[in-house]
From TrEMBL:
Choline/H+ antiporter. Keywords: Antiport, Cell membrane, Glycoprotein, Membrane, Transmembrane, Transmembrane helix, Transport. Coiled coil: none annotated. The gene is Slc44a5. It is a multi-pass membrane protein. GO terms for molecular function: antiporter activity. Belongs to the CTL (choline transporter-like) family. It catalyses: choline(out) + n H(+)(in) = choline(in) + n H(+)(out). Pfam families: Choline_transpo. It comes from Atrichornis clamosus. This is Choline transporter-like protein.
Length: 677
């Protein structure tokens, strides 16, 4: 219970600090040089939703633009420029072309309407930009409208432009920024196409996931009656699917022989956003074929060397299927765990955004003169004009730079983010622990029922969930706490490794690598111990430490059975996931590539057929994992109960075994005491 109170208190402190100081508007809206939000309702910038940069040449890269630290004046505008123009030309023609002045003036500072002011003073004070170039909004910011024409970089189909300072420049002067921006825009184009594919294929994706769910349910139901036969069927099914994949890869590899360009390598063509290009290369299909051949050989070798252990595991699979058959509601409990984890993720994300936006506006001196000693120093916009900075550095301005702060709270925002991440890990592990304990309690009630199914309690899943919430929250929270601490240390080690990646100190890299490996192993070990400790908690109701100790020594006394039954069963269930995901994936591949004549007219027109295909494959695997995780928990619980049954009872009338007759025969006992009616 103390652990539960601790997690509530820590969560409350972090959330309160984030709520009081955070402001998500800093993420939603861009901020101009005066610290005002673009597009915020009930302000002067309500209809000005886009951020415009006076001189984009001063921005080194798109990352600088997105981080709002470009050393040029930034204004909120209602739309981006759609033409080339310079202040010099507009000022010279404002008397007889007032429309040009009125258009250009909307990109000047608010209230500026003095075309008689000298060009030098306007540019010095940055009242107006020296030039505007055709742009388009992206991430609510005006980016130059870059494009390529016949392999030449252009802006609005032009290769040169006037910079407003008496020079004609080539658009290649923007290449440093253009390269990054084009990558971002290409990613945006690919993202839009992917979104379109999801928009027109979501219905078929849901059908594919529904088929995966039905296959998973059918697989679990059939295990109860034909575990052995079904196992060999899906083993040969997996081998057959992989074999078909090998044949298909070889056919594509042979079919591309002699076709111009097919002998190029992936390195020759580089990165392409159109992945169909890679499928025109023989090297791609050769790599696929080699990978599938390796997987095929590994599976066949494992089947040869584990054939005796597999026969033992089949008996436990039958018993687990029988238990799930009596408690079918357990198959849908992963939905509860998924919802709890979704709530944890939402809580973490909202709190992280509030913490990240809890800084105050920081203003810095922006000077046109490179020798100004006040450049990049912090300033106060309210008192800036009364200082001597403008006299020593003509044209200097006090403009918004970023969000931050010098207070004690702002110095420890990173610590609050770590605390938020720790709470997130703790809550997620607690949700998983609650699910494992609940399922273990339900399946333990099946095993310890003397007469099955007559002695199985009513609503075993709900009863187990109630016991876990009422009596075991402290133990579950403590187990989740230990695991969360180790996971947080792993996160910190990954962060340090990322920061020190450029260091040449070999010892530091070696030490970090060793620490990461050790804590990875420790996390895996703790997950294994916690899982079995939760089973013992569900059976006996003891605290976490006692349950973990008893579970560990019980497993050590039956270490051979652990290796034979538990791990082989995990392997079999993994093959089941591969069969479900692979089968649905092959079906989806034939459907989305219009290779099923009956449904050829129903297939939507897609930009990338691999988008819904990968979604269906990954989603099918996750659906199968959800159902089979229940099954794995059932097998682990029955195995631990079986080991405990063997140690507590001897098969006599006074101490009869609680295991089923079939499990009793398979696991080596010659005689089972008759059970009383």
């Amino acid at each position: 219970i103390n652990c539960v109170h601790l997690i509530k208190m820590l969560r409350g402190i972090v959330y309160f600090a984030a709520w009081v100081h955070g402001d998500p508007r800093k993420v939603i809206y861009p901020t101009d040089s005066y610290g005002q939000f673009c597009g915020q309702k009930d302000t002067l910038n309500e209809n000005k939703t886009i951020l415009f940069y006076f001189n984009i040449l001063k921005c080194a890269s798109p990352a600088v633009l997105i981080n709002l630290q470009c050393p040029t004046t930034q204004l909120c505008v209602s739309k981006c420029p759609d033409r080339f123009a310079t202040y010099v030309d507009v000022q010279a023609s404002y008397r007889y072309r007032p429309d040009q002045w009125n258009y250009f003036r909307q990109f000047c500072k608010p209230g500026f309407n003095n075309p008689r002011k000298s060009v030098a003073q306007v540019l010095r004070d940055e009242d107006c930009p020296s030039m505007i170039i055709p742009s388009r909004p992206f991430l609510k910011r005006c980016f130059p409208d870059f494009s390529t024409k016949n392999g030449v970089l252009t802006v609005a189909n032009q290769t040169t432009f006037k910079d407003g300072r008496g020079k004609t420049r080539n658009v290649t002067d923007l290449r440093e920024a253009a390269n990054g921006i084009n990558n971002v825009l290409d990613a945006r184009s690919v993202g839009m196409k992917i979104f379109e594919d999801y928009a027109i294929s979501w219905y078929w994706i849901l059908i594919g996931l529904f088929i995966a769910m039905m296959l998973s349910l059918l697989f679990l139901v059939l295990l109860r009656f034909t575990a052995g036969v079904l196992f060999w069927i899906f083993i040969f099914g997996v081998i057959g699917i992989i074999g078909y994949g090998i044949w298909h890869c070889f056919w594509e590899y042979d079919h591309l022989k002699g076709i111009p360009g097919s002998d190029l390598t992936v390195y020759d063509i580089g990165f392409q956003t159109d992945f169909k290009v890679y499928l025109q290369l023989r090297q791609t299909w050769l790599a696929f074929m080699i990978i599938l051949c390796g997987v095929e050989v590994v599976i066949i070798l494992m089947l040869i060397f584990l054939r005796n252990r597999i026969r033992i595991a089949i008996a436990l699979l039958k018993e687990g299927s029988r238990a799930i058959g009596y408690i079918m509601s357990t198959l849908f409990y992963p939905i509860v765990t998924f919802l709890l984890i979704a709530i944890c993720i939402s809580y973490w994300a909202v709190t992280a955004v509030f913490l990240a936006t809890s800084g105050e506006p920081v203003y810095k001196v922006m000077a046109n003169q490179t020798l100004c000693k006040y450049a990049n120093l912090t300033c106060d916009p309210e008192t800036f004009n009364t200082t001597n900075v403008t006299k020593l550095c003509p044209g200097a301005q006090c403009t918004f730079a970023f969000y931050g702060g010098e207070s004690l709270y702002h110095k420890y925002i990173f610590i609050f983010q770590l605390a938020n991440a720790f709470v997130f890990l703790w809550l997620v592990n607690f949700a998983i622990a609650l699910g494992q304990c609940t399922l273990a309690g339900a399946f333990a009630s099946y095993y310890w029922a003397y007469r099955k199914p007559a002695d199985i309690p009513l609503w075993p899943l709900f009863s187990s969930f109630g016991r876990a919430i009422r009596y075991h929250t402290g133990s579950l929270a403590f187990g989740a706490l230990i695991l969360a601490i180790v996971q947080l240390i792993r996160v910190i080690l990954e962060y340090l490794d990322h920061k020190l990646k450029g260091t040449q100190n070999s010892f530091t890299r070696f030490l970090l690598c060793c620490l990461k490996c050790c804590f990875w192993c420790l996390e895996k070990f703790l997950k294994f111990i916690n899982r079995n400790a939760y089973i013992m908690i569900a059976i006996y109701g003891k605290n976490f430490c006692t349950s973990a100790k008893e579970a560990f020594f019980l497993l050590m006394r039956n270490v051979v059975r652990v290796a034979v039954l538990d791990k082989v069963t995990d392997f079999l269930l993994f093959l089941g996931k591969i069969l479900v995901a692979g089968g649905v994936g092959v079906l989806a591949f034939f459907f989305f590539t219009q290779r099923i004549p009956v449904f050829a007219q129903e297939v939507p027109m897609l930009n990338y057929y691999w988008v819904p295909l990968l979604t269906v494959i990954i989603g099918s695997y996750l659906v199968a994992h959800g159902f089979f995780s229940v099954y794995a928990m059932c097998v682990d619980t029955l195995f631990l109960c079986f080991c405990e049954d063997l140690e507590r009872n001897d098969g006599s009338t006074a101490k009869p075994y609680f295991m089923s007759a079939s499990l009793h025969r398979i696991l080596g006992k010659k005689k089972l005491s008759p059970k009383k009616a």
